[in-house]
Specification:
The chain is α+β, with helices and mostly antiparallel strands. It has 2 domains: 206 residues, Endonuclease III, domain 1 (Orthogonal Bundle); 111 residues, Nucleoside Triphosphate Pyrophosphohydrolase, CATH 3.90.79. The protein has 15 helices and 7 strands. Strands 1, 2, 3, 4, 5, 6 and 7 form a 7-stranded mixed sheet that branches. Helix 1 packs across helix 11. The longest helix has 17 residues. It starts with 6 loop residues before the first helix and ends with a helix. It binds iron/sulfur cluster.
């Protein structure tokens, strides 16, 4: 069975030998943890080092951040980017001063209610600064767990993050939660790197599901969200003697081999209709017969159907069908809805 249940012990032993020496790991407090974790979001460790030192020099306490002009805060952040992080940090410290006398609270509820504290920050501050057995799951940790446990689900999905958080919660050592979370961060940064993990140097290589199945460069699965494209589709309902003209889609591609009413896609509805009329020698219709918005995974069809009573020459892959026959052939989804409207 992998990973063996005592894998955190091997990880912690490796961390004791190989863990990184980082300025925010010296003299930790809830405040220094908070500052460093905010800076490290979206920014590399090496880029953060000088900012971290300068920040603590300028704003050594939550009260100093709370009292500063926002322009000074933004100036100190200049070059780190993502300035909302700095604004959230200041707002949070102002609340800490106003509600907790300048001492960052340790309870989940109180921390979670402060600006800029999401699940990762909550776990990081609670485990690193207060020794609470709380996972801190970021992209590094998701990657390590996906490989270690051979998780094939998309790590960008909230359900997968919840699963990894639950697994981490099960194994986090209660006597060293901060070290465990830091060890995972370091393993992800130094060994279990995104493109080419250094499995031969990994303390968990005998435990690792991905390594065992040769899938260490395949996992984690990250399905990119592709933007949906919106297309305007003009559809021709051409009727003659109780029959309708249908076209069969090509053998390959989207909705392959399905039947549909003749249709043309355009950037605008007017362009689509002009294209349809030109393609089939149709006169401009008087009005829209049917409107429909159909959402596919990566595509949206804004459809407008127009109706003509006329005899028309069949083109390739076309056929006349009665309304009853329409119910028996495979119609592309939205075209089935259109067919259902025909009397
Ligand atoms: S064996 Fe390789 S893939 Fe598995 S946790 Fe270690 S570095 Fe990552």
């Amino acid at each position: 069975m992998w990973p063996r249940p005592d894998w955190p012990t091997r990880l912690l032993a490796w961390f004791a030998r190989e863990g990184r020496e980082l300025p925010w790991r010296e003299n930790r407090s809830a405040y220094t943890t908070w500052v460093s974790e905010v800076m490290l979001q979206q920014t590399r460790v090496e880029a953060v080092r000088p900012y971290y030192a300068a920040w603590l020099h300028r704003f050594p306490t939550p009260a100093a951040v709370a009292a500063a002009d926002e322009s000074d805060i933004l100036h100190a952040w200049q070059g780190l980017g993502y300035y909302r992080r700095a604004q959230h940090l200041q707002r949070a410290m102002q609340e800490v001063v106003a509600r907790y006398d300048g001492c960052i609270p340790s309870s989940r509820e109180a921390l979670a209610a402060l600006p800029g504290v999401g699940p990762y920050m909550l776990g990081a501050i609670r485990s690193l600064a207060f020794g609470a057995p709380e996972p801190a799951v970021d992209g590094n940790v998701l990657r390590v767990f996906a490989r270690l446990y051979g998780i094939e689900d998309d790590v960008l999905q909230p359900a997968t993050r919840r699963r990894v958080t639950a697994l981490a919660q099960e194994v986090i050592p209660h006597d060293a939660p901060g070290a465990f979370n830091e060890a995972l961060m370091d393993l992800g940064a130094l060994i279990c790197t995104p493109r080419t993990p250094h499995c031969a140097d990994c303390p968990l290589q005998v435990d690792c599901g991905a390594r065992r199945s040769g899938r260490e460069t395949v996992l984690p699965v990250r399905k990119k969200k592709t933007k949906q494209v919106t297309e305007r589709v003009a559809v021709a309902v051409i009727a003659h003697a109780g029959r309708y003209l249908l076209h069969r889609r090509s053998e390959t591609g989207m909705l392959a081999k399905m039947w549909e009413f003749p249709a043309v896609t355009g950037r605008t509805h007017a362009a689509a209709l002009a294209g349809l009329c030109a393609a089939r020698g149709l006169t401009t219709p008087h009005g829209v017969y049917w409107r429909h918005r159909h959402v596919f995974t990566h595509r949206i069809w804004e459809m407008r159907a127009y109706r003509w009573e006329m005899e028309a020459a069949l083109q390739e892959d076309e056929c006349w069908y009665t309304r009853d026959e329409l119910l028996t052939i495979p119609l592309a989804g939205p075209h089935a809805k259109l067919a259902a409207t025909l009397a």
